[in-house]
Amino acid sequence: xxxxxxxxTLLNFLEFAVWGAYLxxxxxxxxxxxxxxxxxxFYSVQGIVSIFMPALMGILADRWxxxxxxxxxxxxxxxxxxxxxxxxxxxxGGEVQFATxxxxxxxxxxFFMPTIALSYSVAYSALEKAGLDTVKAFPxxxxxxxxxxxxxxxxxxxxxxxSTPGQWMVSxxxxxxxxxxxxxxxxxxxxxxSGQQKTLFEALGLNAFRLFLNPRMxxxxxxAMLLGFCLQIxxxxxxxxxxxxxxxxxxxxxxxxxxxxxxxxxxxISETLCILLIPFFLSRFGIKKVVLIALLGWVFRFxxxxxxxxxxxxxxxxxxxxxxxxxxxxxxxxGSLFINQETDDSIRSSAQGLFMMMTNGLGAFIGTxxxxxVINHYVFTPQAAGATGAEVVAGWQTSWFIFAxxxxxxxxxxxxxxxxxxxxx
Length: 425
Prior knowledge:
Layout: H1 3-20, H2 26-32, H3 39-63, H4 67-92, H5 98-129, H6 134-158, H7 166-182, H8 200-203, H9 215-228, H10 233-244, H11 255-258, H12 260-274, H13 278-307, H14 314-342, H15 348-384, H16 389-417
Helix pairs in contact: 1-5, 1-6, 1-7, 2-10, 3-4, 3-5, 3-15, 4-5, 4-7, 6-12, 9-15, 9-16, 12-14, 13-14, 13-16, 14-15, 15-16
């Protein structure tokens, strides 16, 4: 591996290690300090800030500050606020106030979310400077981001931090390491004075809204939002769901209850492997069938959670983790490729921004809050009223079946309403 490839591999490793430290386990900590009914807000805020913060930081990187420096600045601020959230959590103990904790967390996430796109820009720029083909060189580098995500999931689990604010301390410290390391990356050009500068309107992807004038594209984007409802549900609730089995004596000592994060990390491993299947499936079946496969993947993802348990039914949990790769990759990555193919060069970047806004922004925001309302009704309200461990688990199972049913309805509607093109996608 060349020197620049190794350096970018480490960059991607650190970038996603920051996120993996808390994304799948944060819900367990929040439920443990009495904020279970607010878990949805902690995940949905990622969608809110994803609507505008990446574009604003992108403009800063394009016009006034080198990209690697903006990446460093964002990670530094994200790290400071995340460490502050962790320290507050430790200091407050069981008396954590939602407003204070949520504010510190939101400030951290607001600066972290732009770093994903910025890290890609830094990598693309460095590879091009080295005379390398980004299409061939970047995917093997990006895979190490998922490896970093998985490793910090395991570290948080094995160090006993899943139910503590220590997971945020791990994330914050890694962010500060990333802030320092980003400054060692090759310098990026500032396009100040270029006639090709994007306006704020263009940078926010608003010019791509004309895609809604194309009925087929409009239909795809609407379903992208509806499927986006699913994206953060299992990230937010899989860990507290699995650990809730600890309230039933026969499951208390099972591996899943003791190491939920390690079990869930199989989802990320599946995601890494399923990326390799996308070119074959897209060329063989086209976008409509691939998205239908993704939708059915979400049906099985949620359904297997509802049917399984960490004891004799742990194999159903394992199946849920395996199908996650299909559910996530076959839509997110295939959808991005479809948007790239179906739009002209003048709005291609803006169209990708619109796709992300509809899925990870608006879709994930609304979906997480709706999921929170469902889980509050079936899980946290009965739990607060003194429900037994078995009753709480039954509430979780009902919630997963509702999510599976919703996704099945979306899949049926997509099959009926979305028209495949005459040419293979």
